[in-house]
Design a protein that fits this description.
Chain lengths: 623, 107
């Protein structure tokens, strides 16, 4: 069996960028971006012997206070079923934050596992005037100490060399005790207290002996914090950033969106003219090109949204936002710690819900999971974008804002406000046990292009894989449903009304008639359960029957078929529901409760139904 | 004998009067303080011992110098502090556990 290394270190020490460097393009990265909560592993590139690298969630201590710290500890101890413990630990320390990192290293050392220490961000440390005698440090703590700079292509070469040596030795004589689990010494709290002081005493000596560092943080960092963390200015900065992000998603993406759209239209036209009429041509043009094209078109917007989230996370800004929002959010029974999971949920609720594992308070974690899907995820963006483009005029209001952008913002805002109300209601039966915030505010850092690219690549890949699998399959099924059975020879109404889809839609319409939904809209809701963005291709399939254009044509078709109240009601429906199946599955896994999952599904459905009904009723009355 | 004891008591009670210790949540922005010790906090209930230990693990140890960087908007909560070169956000409940003495700045 090949050697297994695991990266362990404090949150924000740059473990994940190191992981990306070491595994490179060959990494089999987990599905989710941002916070490393799920298992990420991959083969280390450019080693003679095969070696596996595991990226563990960030942790401060083996005495855990949150579910993700527990995952990290249990993997190291070999306590997780089906997961043999790593052969060698690579402890990662942010060289600009030595004491905190060294404490964890000293604690890990008591486990007596083979260890390597990586002093990461050595470039930042040097420019701050921090000098570390690595040879002396290595002698003192009894393990190899290697400087790394994850920002540089060659910044990990030396570490790779050391890993190669370990791999060669491992291949010669593998350790025999791989399956044995370790246990922490049963330290009672009194002696744990003593050992903390003793460890820090030891660290102080090491620092005195081998490290020279200036007392103060760089001036620009202090100045930036005095603005960004200012109680009033900080909030202005925060809301400006959020506004810019939402405007960018809509405005910057549109040239690329238009280009992709034109490409698919061209492809559809080419196939139409080049193929003989018949069922196959119909399948390729209506089923495949129209179905997939209408979803791929939204890739640029998703990329832009993830880009901003990754940048904000990488720079260290997100924890400042959590600091600013802690008090207001606490009024809702959640805290600043919930901010990052909730923000990730704007990209996708699945990684958002998984990253709630960093929340120590179980009650707060539960509320965060329940409201995470109310943050508008990127899969809803295609639906919003389509309907907004078709029904909201493109005009400028108040000189700077685009009315379409504002509508989009309003939809996001509706989700956030609803989340706040739901949280407030849930808080009513909360126990009054307090949990600490204790949030580290990492130093600001320039975002790293390579790391951003890896993160974005991951997102694009997941999106395209969905297009190629789930969305492709659903497009085909839908095409079958709208095509068969064909209309009878003496048909007086459009062919689609005779199809399976037409019949199913007619049935669903009984339930959805009070919301003003047509049967075509009802059909689109079914595949949207699997992936929300498929609603767009479903509408394309249902309406584009007979046409050969993709997105612009769909917008025009909707403009003719729907009136404004119906369009708004459909938007309102999507603010709350339909919950996609993967979200429901992750809620089940993270809460481990069938009752909570059923409650979660029902409450969102009821909310969606009510919101769409209210929107339809009020808008009909106004228009 | 008695007369010899009384002055000793007077001296003993005079020492804390010179190095006034206060709770971290009573300090002003920009104050530089030194941690004296960590006190129990009833709000955390059964968690309290764990909170104390975690604070210590993060470097909030007696003797450590600490700087108050700033406060949140509502009720000056949470606090941002810097200890051992690392910045942390603490709520008033955690901050109230930490007894400090002033090095510079007012409280």
């Amino acid at each position: 069996m090949s050697i297994r290394f695991a990266l362990i270190g404090n949150p924000n020490c740059g473990k994940t960028s190191l992981f990306n460097r070491l595994t490179g393009a060959r990494a089999k990265v987990a599905n989710y971006p941002g916070v490393t909560v799920e298992r990420r592993s991959g083969p280390i590139s450019d080693l003679a012997e095969p070696a596996e690298l595991l990226d563990l969630p960030g942790t401060y201590s083996l005495f855990v206070t949150s579910p993700d710290e527990q995952v990290a500890r249990d993997i190291i101890l070999g306590k997780i079923a089906g997961e043999t413990k790593p052969d060698v630990l690579i402890a990662v320390i942010d060289a600009t934050n030595l004491r905190l990192g060294l404490r964890l290293v000293m604690e890990l050392k008591t486990l007596n596992r083979p260890m390597i220490l990586a002093l990461n961000q050595m470039d930042a440390a040097r420019s701050r005037g921090i000098t570390i005698n690595t040879a002396g440090l290595a002698r003192e703590i009894g393990m190899p100490v290697i400087e790394t700079v994850a920002v540089n292509r060659h910044g990990t070469d030396e570490l790779r060399k050391v890993l190669a040596e370990f791999a060669v030795n491992h291949a010669k004589n593998p350790l025999a005790d791989d399956t044995q689990t370790l246990s922490l010494n049963q330290i009672d709290e009194l002696s744990r207290d003593d050992s903390i002081e003793a460890l820090y005493h030891q660290i102080e000596n090491i620092m005195q002996e081998h490290v020279v560092q200036p007392v103060d943080l760089p001036r620009w960092q202090e100045r930036l914090d005095s603005v960004v963390m200012h109680p009033v200015l900080g909030l202005v900065v925060l809301f400006t950033i959020l506004m810019v992000v939402f405007q960018a998603v809509f405005a910057w993406a549109s040239p690329v969106v238009d280009l992709i759209d034109a490409g698919f239209t061209f492809l559809g036209d080419a196939v139409s003219t080049g193929m003989p009429d018949g069922i196959l041509k119909d399948f390729i043009v209506q089923g495949l090109i129209a179905g997939l094209g209408s979803v791929i078109v939204f890739l640029p917007q998703i990329v832009i949204l993830f880009f901003f989230i990754l940048v904000l996370e990488d720079t260290g800004y997100l924890t400042r936002a959590a600091f600013l929002l802690d008090r207001p959010m606490r009024g809702l029974g959640i805290s600043g710690r919930s901010f990052i999971p909730l923000l990730s949920s704007f990209a996708c609720a699945v990684p958002g819900i998984m990253s709630t594992r960093s929340i120590s308070d179980p009650r707060e974690r539960f509320i965060t999971i329940m409201i995470a899907p109310l943050m508008t995820c990127s899969a809803r963006l295609p639906v919003y974008a389509l309907i907004i483009a078709a029904f909201i005029p493109e005009q400028t209001v108040w000189g700077i804002f685009n009315l379409q952008g504002l509508t989009l913002f309003a939809l996001y805002f509706a989700g956030v406000v609803s989340a706040a109300i739901v949280a407030l209601i849930m808080r009513r039966n909360q126990t009054r046990e307090h949990y600490p915030l204790l949030l580290e505010l990492p130093s600001y850092r320039w975002p790293m292009a390579y790391h951003l690219l890896m993160g974005l690549k991951e997102r694009v890949w997941i999106f395209l894989r969905r297009v190629g699998t789930i969305i492709l399959a659903l497009s085909i099924i839908l095409w079958v449903l709208v095509t068969f059975p064909g209309a009878p020879a003496d048909a007086t109404r459009p062919a689609i009304e005779y199809s399976f889809a037409g019949q199913l839609g007619a049935l669903m319409q009984y339930l959805f008639a009070p919301l003003g939904f047509s049967w075509q809209m009802c059909i689109a809701l079914i595949p949207a359960m699997a992936a929300r963005e498929v609603a767009v291709s479903a509408l394309a399939t249902v309406y584009a029957v007979g046409g050969d254009n993709v997105d612009a044509a769909l917008g025009t078709a909707l403009g003719q078929e729907w009136n404004l109240p119906v369009a708004l009601a459909y938007l309102a429906w999507f603010v709350y529901a339909p919950q996609c199946i993967s979200t429901i599955a992750v809620v089940k896994r993270e809460t481990n409760s069938a009752k909570a999952t059923v409650w979660f599904t029902l409450y969102l459905f009821a909310l969606a139904y009510f919101a769409a009904w209210a929107t339809y009723t009020i808008a009909s009355w106004l228009v | 004998m008695n007369s010899a004891v009384v002055p000793n008591i007077a001296i003993a009670s005079a020492i804390p009067a010179k190095t006034v210790s206060l709770r971290l949540d009573e300090c002003r922005k920009g104050a530089q303080v030194r941690i004296v010790d960590l006190q129990p906090q009833a709000l955390f209930g059964s968690q309290d011992e764990c909170v104390t230990l975690r604070l210590k693990e993060l470097g909030f140890l007696p003797g450590a110098p600490l700087k108050i960087i700033g406060f949140g908007l509502l009720g000056s909560d949470p606090l941002a502090v810097q200890v051992n070169g690392t910045k942390f956000a603490l709520r008033r409940a955690e901050a109230a556990k930490i007894r400090v003495e002033l090095i510079s700045g007012s409280h």
